[in-house]
Amino acid sequence: MLFKKSTYIARRSELKKRLGGGLCLVFGHNDAPANYPANGYVFRQDSSFLYYFAQKREALVGVIDIDNDREYLIGDDIDIEDVIWTGFVPSVQELAEEAGIEHSAPMGFLKTLVDNAVKSGQTIHYLPPCRHDLMIQIGDLLGIHPLEVRRNASVPFIKAVVDMRSVKSDEEVAEIEKAMDIGYQMHTAVMKACHPGISEKSLAGLMEGIACSLGAKVSFNSIVSMHGEIFHGNPSLRPLEEGRLMLCDAGAETLGNYCSDNTRVTPVSGKFTTRQKEIYSIVEACHDLVIDTVHPDKKWMDMHLDVCRLMTDRLKELGLMKGDTEEAVQAGAHAMFLQHGLGHMMGMDVHDMEGLGQIYVGFDDEVRPSEQLGTNCLRCGRRVRPGWVLTDEPGIYFIPALIDKWRAEGLHKDFINYDLLETYKDFGGIRLEDDILITETGCRVLGKKIIPYHIDDVENFIAR
Which CATH superfamily is domain 5-166 in? Predict the structure, then answer.
């Protein structure tokens, strides 16, 4: 287990208080075949199961019977045929005792528990599963169609988990910082290796090797591309070209299953051009604005809009935008250049708890999601709290198809200089991303070492 037994006991106790009653089911993940049963994806336990029940073995279910004050770890013991292939695995009873759980039982007992709960009128709580095998399993247990499983998940349970997992303890922050240290090595190695002729895939492979050698794996599929305007650009065998920018968005996951997430942009030639510096410096200023001004109780939606205003002001200085800044942002004209939100929660999931429903993770009764392009992709808008870990990731992107579409429609022509914008169609995109911890007075950038991102620092670093 990652943390002390008492940590998990305390978490389950707090969950009981928050829910008040019912039968709480926390499903762990099963093995998932890649193309046939014996050739599976690398196993990764469900994050909420890890948070409350600690164990990483597949095919387990944690049960908290709040009304009867009993906890169970449910699962079948591994038989000797599996031991031959995988080695010794502790019994389910031993795993339960390790996590401070008094009772254990084989998987067949789960149906008995659920049937008894239904008969007695107990409320059954479960979280929305992201895997279809669990949708089928839960559907069989509750007698509902698998496609109804996610929509029938317990909202009180979701909200309780979001509230608890959002605030990171000191030991969780320390684990995230381990991921940051691995991420530092990944990103700086790629910055050093970035030169004309090397392929995007080679750089992605370099990072994945570092992540696997020092931790569990990369925290998501690495984005490595000269086409930075494509948000999730998969690395290809395309060789890097002189004069282009290479955007790298990648992170590490520790053996304890906490994540990092950083983005850096490196000039393939070793030096930024004047035009690249002009755009890069705007993104840099927006990134630093967050670090300098965010504080507890500030709405992350307002922080996002502050960044949009600064970006608009600076783009006006270059002649790419025009008109009144506030009117431009209110109209959504800035979304020509920034089409995503400022950042997201981070922890055991690189988009922390996103699978529970972003409406619960990032919004509340006070702050609701926007429908405006760009801001509608903001994954968090509510007031930030001490202990939250968020990404700070503004960007500027020049997407030829979007430029053509808006220009043809005459959209925001009072705020956008389309003639000048036309000359930027070959630019790509720039994003800078760091992970911040909200403190009692402001924020702290996580990581013992900060990956170079100021223009002079980047050029000097890759020149050594």
Answer: Creatinase/prolidase N-terminal domain (3.40.350.10)
- Rounded to two decimals, the pTM is 0.95
Residue 256 vs residues 3, 51, 203, 213, 216: alpha-carbon distances, Å: 9, 11, 25, 14, 8
Instruction: Round to whole Å and give the CA distance between 364 and 216.
Output: 34
CA 37, distance to chain mean position in Å, is: 29
> What is the DSSP track for 319-347?
TSB-S-HHHHHHHTGGGGT--S-S--B-S
Please work out, in degrees rounded to the nearest 5, the angle formed at the alpha carbon of residue 167 by the alpha carbons of 166 and 172: 105
Question: Under CATH, to which class is 170-463 assigned?
Answer: alpha beta
Q: CB-based contacts of 302: which residues, under 8 Å, 6+ apart?
A: none
Query: Where do we find the tokens 């630019």?
Result: 427
pLDDT tens by residue, 383-424: 999 999 999 999 999 999 999 999 999 999 999 999 999 999
Query: For the chain, which residues make up each domain, given as ranges?
Result: 5-166, 170-463
User: What would the two tokens of residue 110 be?
Assistant: 């789960």
Name the nearest CA neighbour of 214 among 249, 178, 248.
178
Buried residues in 298-329 as b, exposed as e (16+ CB within 10 A): eebbebbbbbbbbbbebbbeeebbbbebeebb
